[in-house]
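Help needed: design a sequence for this.
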């Protein structure tokens, strides 16, 4: 999406702002011309680095013939947790799409999180996506997020 594109956020549309650790679900209480985002839900995921999550050294495997040994690659627990968190966010979007009359979704997330979400979303949510932005707004206040999304 180009820098000068104006995103129209319909009344009651949801804006998801997230990364691998935090997700904000914002609903537009205003209209397309003057959006007024209100926080509906906040998810926070305590996801420390892999070095703090794993407790053992990677495993070793032995060849069936001979005395050769190989080490196993250590699991990247941080990435696994980010993928699980993306699935949780996708499940929440699916529930919203199923249970409420929502005109659409705008998703703003860093590229990696956006890719994880795309893989996790079902068709009913994908059909309602109005815009995707590969930006990380999770540390911004809601009024700044509004300005970023609606700046012409």
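Sure. Designed sequence:
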């Amino acid at each position: 999406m180009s820098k000068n594109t104006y995103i129209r956020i319909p009344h009651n549309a949801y804006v998801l702002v997230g990364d691998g650790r935090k997700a904000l679900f914002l609903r537009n209480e205003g209209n397309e011309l003057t959006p007024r985002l209100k926080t509906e839900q906040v998810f926070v995921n305590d996801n420390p680095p892999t070095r703090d999550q794993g407790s053992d050294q990677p495993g070793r495997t032995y060849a069936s013939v001979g005395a050769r040994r190989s080490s196993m690659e250590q699991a990247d627990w941080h990435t696994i947790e980010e993928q699980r968190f993306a699935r949780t966010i996708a499940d929440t979007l699916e529930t919203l799409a199923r249970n409420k009359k929502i005109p659409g979704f705008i998703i703003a997330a860093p590229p990696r999180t956006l890719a994880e979400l795309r893989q996790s979303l079902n068709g009913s949510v994908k059909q309602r996506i109005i815009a995707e932005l590969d930006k990380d707004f999770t540390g911004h206040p809601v009024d700044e997020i509004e300005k970023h999304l609606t700046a012409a």
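The chain has one domain: 14-150.
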